[in-house]
Amino acid sequence: MFGPSSRLLLPLLVASLVLRTSALLNPLAPLNLQITKNATVNIPPTLYGYMWEDINHSGDGGLYAELLQNRAFQGVLPGTLNALNAWQPYNGPRLSVTSSTPGVSAALPNSLQVQIPAVVYGPIGFENTGYWGIKVQQGWTYTGSFYAKSDTFCGAITASLRSSTGTTFASATLSGISSTWQKFTFTFNPTTSAPDINNVFHVEVDGQEAAGQTIYFGMFSLFPPTFRGRKNGMRIDLAEALAATQPSVWRFPGGNNLEGASWDTRWKWNETIGPLESRPGRVGDWGYPNTDGLGLLEYLNWAEDLGAEPILGIWSGISIQNYSDLTTWPVVPEADLQPYIDDAINQIEFITADASTNEWGALRASLGREQPYALQYIEVGNEDQFQPASYAAYRWNMFVTALSAQFPNLQFIATTYPSTALNPPYMKIDFHEYNSPSWFEAGAFMFDNYPRNGTQYFVGEYAVTSTNDTNALGTIPQGRLAYPSLAGSTAEAAFMTGMERNSDVVFASAYAPSLQHIMNYQWTPDIITYDAGSIVKSTSYYVQQMFSVNRGTQVLATSPASTNDTAPLYWVASHNNVTNILYLKVSNTGPDDLTAYLFFDFNVTSNIGTSVSISSPALSPISGQFNISNTLTEPQNIIPVASSFALVYMDKYNYTFPATSVTVLSFEANWSM
Ligand code: AHR
């Protein structure tokens, strides 16, 4: 049976079988992993990205670079203390928010009423404390503005950036106030940086000159330099961090924040466009006013800046009155739904229509964007599995029937559970999961058996949220994570290997939620946390980056395949046929270092390979280190380590994957040679 050469092969074969068998029996034994040239799946270019909504002050106070909180008194009740959120008096004026005098625009009826006492010593005014602080940076030009009017006061107004203890970093003196609203604009160029973020935007007038008089102010704004210099743009450090992960999808504007607590308080696209003075803002679903300064066009421009495919959520006729009582959620009856469908058609025309032939396209052009935006994907609602009956009965059908007739090239994503039958049948469906590390590790194989029937998943929200297997959305004492942990992120990576291996049926994914202001948030953990001055990239951030930046075009078959039996090592191999790079992405979710003997069914074309990896600080397990996180106070506990290595053989390599780690190995492999 065996010829001469087989005699040589036999011991090798036996040895390899022994090794393999022992690997299955003994998880610490080295794994023999053969990487073939057989492409199993073409990887869609949309595989990795983010879901976006204003939650945790991710927009206002986060990515949106505006520095002044409650800048136009949107979404507040005049006369209440709450209406003065982030504003404080300086040297004794009486401050209130009022709508009893016309506001700066119909959309912004509220203004700040500043009543100066009859007797004043020195300057008097008010301050905005920003989004829990303001970063003052030498060399930056800050661009500011506000509206003011007074029937009697006509003196100068001085605006400045100061520390909370009174050090002035930059100031501008403005004159010309009259009895009608006027917009004052100015710039600040601080010559020194503030040592911390305890700084305010300060406005004052001369006390003697203003004594006994009333001055009204409205619609303030103060911007630092923004990402790519876009007007009304993004905070540079956050934008750069997100951009550095090269996301290829951007799902917006929610999430629950699309839906509103009532139909009327839903996210309305047409109230988020145009001059800031014409955007009324709204109280978002996460409990704080949204300025909507980050509006539809800003989102679309941002997606373009990222090179990401926009996935636009359109309101599908439900709101969330009381999150924990589904019976309270207002659902638009079938007979009343058409106006909302018409509104969605207008919205999509605004985004995609020819400016010369369509009124909504012309409106877009009048706002500075002549060229239509590329738009392929419409998500009909958000988490409609919570109201499946009306979705299945008429909402999905009415939206999809009308929109596909109008926009035949669009693809529609359903948001019920896959088991809910829809008419027309869904071809793409959104799947959300917030859960424990063990759920995500097991989930690495959930797509292996997904039916190959033409329907595809969009994993539209996912994250490890807790160590608690039975209550993943509970409190921190119950196991909820404050920040992504290394153990959680390795579990996410394990799951992502499953998405990538099955990216014929998972066409896109979106980590969520993405950003968190440490001073005011509703959801943990998040991929980037920040305050007014600094940011921290989490372990999950690095996993997203490692998976997204290192993209193959095709998945390669391996032997063995990554299965439950090969856990706690999880992997996916891929090849990029443009760059001729072979990738092996491996998550080791276990507590031990694990070695793999890698065998290639081909010769790599360079003897230099590279690795990038996150793992606990020491290479061997340290008790308690697996729940380690990067935090604002310890931002660099875990950062990716990149290295290159030389291969002795062009068809094999041994690598030890550290305990609780995620690694991407790259090799040059030019098939065409
Ligand atoms: O990501 C936070 C919330 O979780 C989203 O708004 C919602 O879609 C999901 O339930």
UniProtKB/TrEMBL annotation:
Leader sequence residues: 1-23
Catalytic activity annotation: Hydrolysis of terminal non-reducing alpha-L-arabinofuranoside residues in alpha-L-arabinosides
Swiss-Prot/TrEMBL keywords: Glycoprotein, Hydrolase, Signal
EC number of this enzyme: 3.2.1.55
Residue stretches spanning the membrane: none
Keyword flag Glycoprotein: yes
Domain Alpha-L-arabinofuranosidase C-terminal: 460-661
InterPro entries reported in the protein's UniProt record: Alpha-L-AF_C (IPR010720), ASD1_cat (IPR055235), Galactose-bd-like_sf (IPR008979), GH (IPR017853), Glycosyl_Hydrolase_51 (IPR051563)
GO terms classed as biological process: arabinan catabolic process; L-arabinose metabolic process
Family, similarity comment: Belongs to the glycosyl hydrolase 51 family.
Name this protein carries in UniProt: non-reducing end alpha-L-arabinofuranosidase
Native species: Jaapia argillacea MUCL 33604
